[in-house]
Amino acid sequence: MASSINPLSWLTASRARARALPLFTRAAVAGIVVFWIVGVQKALWDVRAWGALVPDEVGLTSLYRLNTFPFIHLNFFHAVMNILALTPLLERFETEYGTLTALALFFGPFATLPAFIYLFIEKFLLRGNTAVMGASIWVFLLLGIEAMKAYRANPSFKVGPYSIPTWTSPIGILLAMAALVPSSSFLGHLSGLVVGYLCGLGVLKFLAPPEKALRFVEGKLNLMGRLPHYISVDQKKYGRFGVLPSSSSPASAGISMGRGYSSLPAAAWELDGRWPMADGKQTCLTSDQTRLGPLNSGLLRLRRDPRILKVPPYLSLLCILVGVIWLFLLPLDDYSRRTYISENALLPGQVHTYFGGSDQNVFRAYKHETSALAGKTNIEINDGLETIIKGLGLKVSRQNFTYRSAGREYSGENLYAILQAPRGDATEAIVLVGAWENVKGEVNRNGIPLVLTLARYFKRWSLWSKDIIFLVTPDSITGPQAWVDAYHDAHDSARVSSLPLKSGALQGAIAIDYPQEERFESVHVVYDGVNGQLPNLDLINSVVSIAGGQMGMGVSIQEMWQHDDRYPDRLRTMLRGMLKQGLGLASGPHSSFIPYHVDAVTLQPYGVGWQDEMAMGRVIEGTFRSLNNLLEHLHQSFFFYLLMQRERFVSIGTYLPSAMLIAANFTIMAIFLWHQSQIGPPPNTPAVERQLFLPLGLVSLLQSLSVIPLSLFHHAPESALPPLFALFALINLALPPALSALLTARYRPSAQQYHLLQSFSLLLLGMFLSSLATLNFSLALLVGLLACPLSFVRPSRTAAGRVTCYLLLSAVAPTAVAVWVWGLGGWGRR
Amino acid sequence: MRQLLSFLLLLFVSLCRASSSPSSPDAPDYHEQLVLRPLPLSSLLASFNFRTNITLSAFEAHNFRYFPRSLAQILQHAGTRELHLRFSLGRWDAESWGARPWDGAREGGTGVELWAWLEADTDQEADQKWRTLTNALSGLFCASLNFIDGTRTTRPVTSFQPEGNLPNSKLANTHLLYGVLPHEVVCTENLTPFLKLLPCKGKAGIATLLDGHKLFDASWQSMAIDVRPVCPADGECVLQMEQTIDMVLDIERSKRPRDNPIPRPPPGHELKCDTSKSYHSDDTCFPAEYNADQDWSISQIFGRTMKGTCPLADPSVPSVCLQIPDSRSVYTSDGTTENKNPDKLSRCFDITPSSDFELWLPLPSSPSAPEVVTPDTPLLYAERSFTGHGQERGGMQTILRNPSPTSPVEFIYMESLPWFMRIYLHTIQARIEGNASVPSSSLIHEVYYRPAVDRARATQLEVRMRIPPRSTVFLTYDFEKSILRYTEYPPDANRGFDVAAAVITILGEGRKRYALRTTSLLCSLPTPDFSMPYNVIIFTSTAIALAFGGMFNILVRRFVAADEGPEMTLTTVKGRLAGLAARLRGGRA
């Protein structure tokens, strides 16, 4: 039966019902609303204190509470939820039993009985004094009645092999409410439900007022005639099912309510037991339009309103503005958070570090040894280091690698040693990297001796649960890359040799970049990975906590040598981080590890202070002790974050809306333009057919052309890169006018095709940017901001307009921006 | 009076002993021996061996004598003919330490390993007995052996041979089952029950040196229990139980006093420096070679001296042997006689039963003298690691190197992999380096493969290979990582899943076999985010969906009793059918 109802007809029926709520239901809802409005203030009359069902307050003089409490609600949300739940149930009850009965019952036993039950249990059994209020007690009461009814018609439903009696369903809801909704009164709901069940069973039938009396009252007062939406005693038995359409009616498919519906006296159609057919031939759509209430028709008018078409450009501008403002709000205290250690196993700074004392004598000796090697070839250096490390009793191995990139050949030999965990079994490992030269080409004068001294020191401890790998690479970018590629067998074995000696899964890596000769003041933590990937925030936090908290040295990030933790410095730090993330370059030996899900940072001592090499060694010792504590791979903390001070960050949930809003602006404009393309020129001629071929073809051609510069820049030798870039920038300048000239001359595109062209481009842009934002937020934001003008350009009629537009767009094109940045940087250096 | 009573008791006991000993006059029931072998890189291998014999008839008659009753009853109850149990920790550094003790026969992979020959008529019965055995041993040894379920049990075909003499009639209905727990951490709670099985319970004899602190600080240690029936050519079959503990101690680490175990940097003047360096001074010190030999004594290494000998042990077997060249001198406590063995590489000590025994090995007198016995070169080096990255696919690579310049080595490589690593058998390949004359295709002789069944059975792979002399073989295969069910992840899901060591059995001449195990591995599977917010979101969404669904259903659905809807009687059905037929007919016309 029910399944044959057209869904549309159901909708219309429910709308109809909403319009024709019976009298008592309206009164109850109005009562709740009034009490809520009164309850907004508390100074004049605290309605909640007055009317709630407080067990200790209920005396002979305050028995009114038994009746008032269902109307009074805690707050707006409470009231709205209860109205939403109560209205359909109460409406159903009223149409079934009549307004007078409902009035009598709900002001009488249905309010007081549950209240009495509640009072009895709460006050005398539990000896509590919890106040309850709200119409949810009625909701459960009515649910109980409904459930008993359903139980009679349909005793059980089947879930798999179990058959569950239908009357239990409100209990499930009751339990879910108690579990999920805070401060909901389980006992109050339960007492309502119990009364509901009793009523549904017919036990409480005696409470209902006698029909004769009702009829008498009704007749005497002529309630039917005087009150709108009144449900009479006589019509009540049809009240409930009177609105059901009959499936045998052929018109039920195109059911239409007709305009006359609301004006018909309710009894007339309900007694009939069928849907009134005002005009069976009307189509759904038109009947919908004619019948919809003022609100709906208002919405519809708005949809047709031409003014609404003016909104999208402003909306997309708003998106951009909000996105940018959002970004600038992030450094504020209210939007960023303090960092915290999420993985409790790390316990940073909780152990005493013992590196020092006579280890410094050893360090000096190793420094002499490595200083003697400075300036020699890679192989000679490795020979020298290998003898030292072998003397420590570690297993040493070497790896040759050759990379060809931009016409240059990067070759070298990595040296690495494995300190096997004394009682371990090669399942996990942590890496200590010391590059012979750092990114700037300075020799790691203190870093390499420190790695050697630490290797000797770590060997003495028996507490390592993971193998420790000491890796010395000739440079900071290609060497670590070759090593970590080979470790994960992702290398091209023709160029990069395999590792003869391996250990278990890498859990973390720390690189030392310590070329400074004099004593240092603070440690700079470099954490940017390639392609904008970041290490787990816990690793950075551990280093900060050990170096800053335990060792008492300064810690900085993003080359912010001075940081006063105020808004400008935070913003600067964040923007620097974003720029680096957006560019996605490797910033140190650690960068190559991050794509393999090995969390890594580089530590750079800087400044002139009183911290010596041993202090740096203790920082690394502490960090390794923390990593050694790890039971699981670092996974607890954030992988997507923006740091704005060493102890302040925003996580992806907070910053992502910014880039998403900017990406959304393109999508909004794309949809808008798609719609615009349908509408012809001013004398609105709707539903023009779209000519898709040219725009689609052109957009896909241009998008696919991007492969050419990509592969060119990828394969060109380094010396050819600047001229190639210049050439490409010139082409980039020349291509738009040339293309537009060609287009206008050859194809004479219509305004519609221009719209479509722009629509498709923006659609793609919005799509790419929003998916990119989840991976590399900064890059998406940068590209999005630079592309913003594209949303607002329109074909211009005047030549001057065209030239201005062209110049503006060219100025913010990525190639031009690169030139600008480079030029400004050069100027700034000078 | 009490003295008299105890004297009588002693007399009675000694009489009993006297009366029982003639039952096996020539087969001593129990003996124990400790072999100490200094290894290169200042390590020391200590092999403890305890052996108990019991005749099968006495065993059947429950007359256990030195054989531990607790274990014997388990063996009888589970119908076990032969049992091998291993608790291991750390890894054997074959590059430095050479061939393994006992030819690798007394060691297991990291964690706990158990294999046994059970007497059963059917596979089901064998499984049943295996479950009994693992559960009982789990209680006895305080290890999670009860987690060796169907998914961790395999039935190796070629890798294991019974060590004892099983009568052929019985061999037909014995079943070999093999289970391994790579994640099990071996610790003190496993040592205590182990010592309790000994007749002297660690109160006298070499077992007094077994201290949990030292044993589990070892670089490598393996505790083994082997029970096997041995039938000498003449005489009665005996059930032999051998308990073995092998450990490699780092001498420098072990010598650290127990009350000050932190390796603080020594004072500057105590550093051993290489004074030949030009820059050597008071504050600059290039440390001398790490592996310089060290002097040590038993009390330094083990933290205590040895308390005499076990009075129950066979006195004809020397308790302590030391394997060092004859040229080095050794000091021992009074009353000990030193017997140098004719091979000039080892010596044994006769110890007075009642007094403490101490042994001190000083530094070699001359720097040129050989410090330690050069270890034998192992027959095969094996190293196993994962290849690839990511959470979907992976690969396994085992590097097998035959160091021998002349003889090839033939062996069986066995893996028992968890079911969630689905291996692609077609990708298994062996690549040879160093010996071009042998084609790679001829390396693998035989493959026995039993695929895994999800959540029921582990993958079992046995490969028989032959590696020509002086060459290295890379055995590789790929696998896929399956996604586990939400409840199947352990609490430390992000740690990864342990993959048991591969067992390599080298086939020597005759029945001689050498065993070798690789290290275990950690396989990371795709892991959902088990964080608290994630769980909260999932649970609340589910609950709200359920609650809302129920509520919404009741609110909007109109329940109609059957009698209230339009009736569906036979006539209406007939009418409809008639109408349909009419329309069809009309359509055709």
TrEMBL record, chain A:
Record-linked PANTHER family: GLYCOSYLPHOSPHATIDYLINOSITOL ANCHOR ATTACHMENT 1 PROTEIN
UniProt organism field: Schizothecium vesticola
Name of protein: Gaa1-like protein
Taxonomic lineage: Eukaryota, Fungi, Dikarya, Ascomycota, Pezizomycotina
InterPro entries, sorted: Gaa1, Peptidase_S54_rhomboid_dom, Rhomboid-like_sf
Pfam families referenced in this protein's UniProt entry, alphabetically: Gaa1, Rhomboid
One record GO biological process: attachment of GPI anchor to protein
The keyword Transmembrane helix is assigned to this record: yes
SUPFAM superfamilies named in the record: Rhomboid-like, Zn-dependent exopeptidases
Topological relation to the membrane, as annotated: Multi-pass membrane protein
Annotated GO CC locations: GPI-anchor transamidase complex
A molecular function (GO) term: serine-type endopeptidase activity
Keywords: Membrane, Transmembrane, Transmembrane helix
Main location: membrane
From TrEMBL, chain B:
Keywords: Membrane, Signal, Transmembrane, Transmembrane helix
Transmembrane segments: 532-556
KW Transmembrane helix (keyword) present: yes
Keyword Transferase: no
Biological process annotations from GO: attachment of GPI anchor to protein
Stretch forming the signal peptide: 1-18
Region annotation Disordered: where it falls in the sequence: 252-274
InterPro entries, alphabetized: PIG-T
Alphabetical list of PANTHER family matching this protein: GPI TRANSAMIDASE COMPONENT PIG-T, GPI TRANSAMIDASE COMPONENT PIG-T-RELATED
Protein's name according to its UniProt entry: GPI transamidase component PIG-T
